[in-house]
Amino acid sequence: MIRVLVTGGAGFIGSHLCRVLLERGHAVIAADSLFSGRKRNILPLMSNPRFEFMRHDIIQPLFIECDQIYNLACPASPVHYQYNPIRTVKVNVLGTMNVLGLAKRCGARMLQASTSEVYGDPQVHPQPESYWGHVNPIGPRACYDEGKRIAETLCRDYHVGNGVDVCIARIFNTYGPHMALNDGRVVSNFLLQALRGEPITIYGDGSQTRSFCFVSDLVEGLIRLMECGERFEPVNLGNPEERTIREIAERIVSLTGSSSKLVEEPLPQDDPVRRKPDIRLAKQLLNWQPSVSLDDGLKETVADFQARVHGHEEW
Ligand SMILES: NC(=O)c1ccc[n+]([C@@H]2O[C@H](COP(=O)([O-])OP(=O)(O)OC[C@H]3O[C@@H](n4cnc5c(N)ncnc54)[C@H](O)[C@@H]3O)[C@@H](O)[C@H]2O)c1
Prior knowledge:
Elements: E1 3-7, H1 12-23, E2 27-32, E3 51-55, E4 68-71, H2 78-81, H3 85-106, E5 109-115, H4 142-162, E6 166-171, E7 174-175, H5 186-196, E8 200-203, E9 209-210, E10 213-214, H6 215-227, E11 235-237, E12 243-244, H7 245-256, E13 262-265, H8 280-286, H9 294-310
Parallel strand pairs: 1-2, 1-4, 2-3, 4-5, 5-6, 6-11, 7-10, 8-13
Antiparallel strand pairs: 9-12
Helix pairs in contact: 1-6, 3-4, 5-7, 5-9, 7-9
The structure holds nicotinamide-adenine-dinucleotide.
The site of nicotinamide-adenine-dinucleotide has 30 residues, from helix 1, helix 3 and strand 5.
């Protein structure tokens, strides 16, 4: 049986990943500080004898035995990562070093959850892995963007210098059940506002585009990358289908049957205008591409949000 450590395992993506790994017969340890994740996400897994939860902050070293590590621990939404930017840098630098050190000691293969934010406000569309990015190092998003960039550098250096078996997933916008209600990201914001009948805030005129990947597609991509064997160069995982922000808001209003109206507000600083993954490498290397349509993914997400909002889930 393969023993898998998922840091950030109580978070949005981590909790889905833990469930799928258990379904595939692995033993799974979720290590999470519960900074932005919640136990509720992993509650259904607790009764599985192959699952363990460890409350742990990866800024501190951890000593366990495992064969594979998915390093997902890091606050991922601007609301959470800007709450304490220095801490966000620490998670990405000290935390990633600790997890790489553990991978080295155990001889485990590690997958680093990187992000499309390493491309910043890109000047190349769509973004291939070879693009070096356009990041403001002193802007409000820098703690996350630059943190994730240095985490990639650490992966490269532990791989080249210490022979650590590591791979890097550059994850683009992902959505689905278990997203935090208060994370301020596009889909969760729109859903919450629509379900409460509040005005839906669009930053800018809504013509900026994003591409959204449903979480089950992403999890499949992460597992395929982990299992594809040695390779440390980053691989983009995301949905290349571009949608305008206005289009997403309108779909959500329609799917929730909401009476909310769309209102425009100024764009936040350094908000990228366009972001779209080039996934040719993932297709070729992993035979992977997203298969869940936006409508199907949104329907599952709406059902989850409805249950939580009407069940008065605490934030
Ligand atoms: N969701 C996306 O669209 C997206 C896009 C790109 C990259 N990512 C990356 O994927 C990973 C998971 O993102 P998510 O959307 O599930 O976010 P999330 O906030 O739901 O999950 C992150 C988890 O990490 C935990 N955590 C934070 N700091 C920690 C620490 N110091 N020690 C231990 N645990 C800690 C949180 O409590 C949370 O459970 C993150 O690394 C994120 O940067 C996500």
